[in-house]
Amino acid sequence: MAAYGLYTHIASNKFRSMLLLAGLFLLVYVLVYAGALIAEVVINGNGTVAYYLSRAFADLLKAAPFATIAAIAWIAIAYFFHQSMIDAVIGGHDVDRQEQPRLYNLLENLCISRGITMPKLKIMESPALNAFATGLNPRQYSITVTTGLLDALNDKEIEAVLGHELTHIKNGDVQLMVVAVIIAGVVGFFGELFFRLFTNLNWSSGSGGSWSSGSSSSSRSSSSSSDSKSSGGGAIIVIIIAIVLLVVAWLLSQVVKLALSRSREYLADAGSVELTKDPDAMISALRKIENRGELPGATSAVMELCVDNPREGFADLFATHPSVQSRVDALVKFAGGRDPGPMPTLTDETKEPGAQAGQQDAPPPLRHGPWDDADRSGSPPPVPAASPSGTAGSNPAGNPMGNSMGPWGRH
User: Fold this and answer.
1) Cβ atoms 299, 355 nearer than 8 A
2) How far apart are CA 48 and CA 342, in angstroms?
């Protein structure tokens, strides 16, 4: 984290975005070739492996212009309408100052303080605790916040989350993440299309038809019978090759997630602290969001945009976010923040002697940060820095971080 340059990160995001867009066309061609293999087996069921491969390659050359146009059209549609598609999936809607004055003012103050163009503000009706940013240019940038997050977090913590999302926009993370969503959408669409085609094939009729149509003729020679068996085996081999190509295309679409460097979350946390000058608020917000951010009905691509993604990949290989614990540890180490510890789980809450029977199915109550009182009116107590003589009280600004240095400089 400390050794990773911010400008290098931004330049890397731009390069990766262009590389992934180029890779999108490669994935589309692989999917088209796999589909051509399946189509050739269905249409011309009596051939060798070499015959099917050559015919499918010829089909690919013919279909390449149409596949290219389709990929470009998908990119154009996603560029202009990706936010509308995401809103349709999660139910987000625009809000203004009159509808959400508290949230709107917090975001506006952050943008004014750093001269950042204010993105659109959206609300998602969900008890989950999460937020995410989207957009490919300043006119499209938006930040979506769940109602559960607004209810559970105090103003300082909400401000920290908004600072986190603004940093994603500033660092160019949002563009890269949206490109990854576009690629996942293309592969998912074609993959499902070919899967349905493959599962609907009538293999019994195909194997009884042209693959071995001459095997029952008494006038067929032994060499012809051998060729018929060879062609039937070739069709099976080609189908296996097509399946392997589809699996490889899916795996490549998952590897795209590895391009979403998990360091971007550390940098966004650091950027939030730089904006708010309050590492404790970011830590407390992460602890409250931890394991409470699952958005019902949201696709994996949408979850990868969020502050925290509770869905983990196989053996953490495809995880797009570092763990909350590691992010908190980084803030404690580099920003001098204080960790209140994980929030109590539902099991822990229901084990308390005072837990009522009617509250067993309710979500666990969220405690506030170590400085909060119940009505959220408290503020972080100043931590005085030590004077040269070893006594406290020499820090007139009351900076809770003292003179600690982080990867983003002195506060």
Assistant:
1) no
2) 61
Q: Give the DSSP per-residue string, 314-376.
A: GGGTT--S--HHHHHHHHHHHH------PPPPHHHHHTSTT--GGGTTSPPPPP--TT--TTS
For residue 263, the model assigns a pLDDT of: 77
Q: Which is nearest to 280 in space by CA: 291, 290, 265, 269?
A: 269
Token code pair at residue 141: 């940038």
For 293-350, what is each residue's pLDDT tens digit?
A: 998 878 777 888 899 888 765 445 556 788 899 999 999 998 988 998 898 864 444 4
CA pair distance 235, 411, nearest whole angstrom = 68
Q: Which tokens sit at 409?
A: 């400089």
405: enclosing H helix or E strand = strand 405-406
What single-letter DSSP state applies at residue 392?
A: B
Cα separation, 250 vs 30, in Å, equals 10
CA distances from 246 to 240, 253, 286, 326 (A): 10, 11, 38, 35
- C-alpha–C-alpha distance, residues 140 and 398, integer Å: 39
Between vectors from CA 277 to CA 274 and to CA 281, what angle results, nearest 5°? 110
pLDDT band at 391 (very low <50, low <70, confident <90, very high): very low
**Joined tokens for residue 285:** 């917000």
Alpha-carbon separation of residue 25 from 21, 60, 64, 167, 386 (angstroms): 7, 13, 10, 30, 60
122 closest CA partner among 103, 102, 98, 108:
103
Strands 142-146 and 120-124: what pairing? Answer: parallel
Phi-psi region of 259 (alpha: psi -120 to 50; beta: other; left: phi over 0): alpha
Rounded Cα gap, residues 408 and 274, in angstroms: 7
Q: Quick check: helix, strand or coil at residue 42?
A: helix
What single letter denotes the amino acid at residue 409? G
Q: For residue 327, how far is the Cα from the chain centroid?
A: 17
Give the list of residues 6+ apart from residue 164 with CB closer than 8 angstroms, or none: 131, 268, 269, 271, 272, 282, 307
| Non-local CB neighbours of 404 within 8 Å, separated by 6+ positions | 334, 335, 336, 411
Q: Would you say 400 and 380 are in contact if contact means Cβ atoms under 8 Å apart?
A: yes
Q: What strands lie across the sheet with 142-146, from one edge to the other? A: 92-94, 120-124, 142-146, 131-134
